[in-house]
Amino acid sequence: MKSIHDPRYLAFIEQLILERWSLKITQEQLSMVLGRPQSYVAKVENLDRRIDVVELRDWLMALNIEPTEFMCRIPWWSSNSASTEQ
Questions:
Q1: Which among 70, 54, 56 is positioned nearest to 19, based on CA atoms?
Q2: Of the residues 39, 70, 83, 85, which has the fewest C-beta atoms closer than 10 A?
Q3: Other CB atoms closer than 10 Å to residue 52's CB: what's the count?
Q4: Distances (CA, A) of 82 to 9, 52, 72
Q5: What structural domains does the chain harbor?
Q6: What is the rounded end-to-end Cα distance, in angstroms, of the chain?
Q7: Which segments constitute the HTH cro/C1-type domain (predicted)?
């Protein structure tokens, strides 16, 4: 299974989208803060592009979200019974 289709990665991206929506920030607004085109945000959110840890930090800082708090909101991250199988 390709890692971009791993259910854990899907949950991670879904949480990233929920965070942006909860702040009522558009893809365009986020992309402007990141200094990237809107298509970059869309590709990450549509699973056309994978995000790395450096980009994640920039993304979360742009949304004013503490990275550790964000990760704890992802169910599989904080679960003791999370499967590491792919």
A1: 70
A2: 85
A3: 8
A4: 13, 21, 13
A5: 3-74 (1.10.260.40)
A6: 7
A7: 16-70
Residue 52, helix vs strand vs coil: coil
Q: Within a 10 A sphere around the Cβ of 62, how many other Cβ atoms?
A: 19
Are 70 and 60 in contact by the 8 Å Cβ rule? The answer is: yes
Q: Is the pLDDT of residue 80 over 70?
A: no
CB within 8 Å of 43: residues ≥ 6 apart: 49
| Residue whose structure tokens are 């979360």 | 60
CA distance 13 to 42: 11
Q: Answer whether 13's CB lies under 8 Å from 45's CB.
A: yes
Average pLDDT, the chain: 89
